[in-house]
Amino acid sequence: MSNVSEEQRITLEAAAFRRLLEHLRARSDVQNIDLMNLAGFCRNCLSNWYREAADAAGVPLSKDESREIIYGEPYGQWQAKHQREASDAQKAAFEVNKPSH
Fold this sequence. Notes:
Layout (H helix, E strand, L loop, with lengths): L5 H21 L5 H8 L3 H14 L6 H9 L3 H8 L5 H10 L4
Helix pairs in contact: 2-6, 3-4
InterPro entries: SMc04008-like_domain (IPR023163), SMc04008-like_sf (IPR036810)
Pfam family, one: DUF1244
Organism: Phyllobacterium myrsinacearum
């Protein structure tokens, strides 16, 4: 991709990230534990990475604020509407596949 400028690359990455957020918000049926078990990251990981990037850029951002950015609403509201208790199978898979980050 040598024909893409740094500014274009950043713009394209930002667009892909926004699309990922839209997709995750539309697929609230997919639980974070499922994402963790299959992909090794979840919405909370994304919010942590977002907050770490903000910190590195000198932009103050709380954990709650970064979660609201990722979830599209306050985390507690999202949990109340969408989060289910993990099954024993999901919990067992998480223990086997638990990421180190």
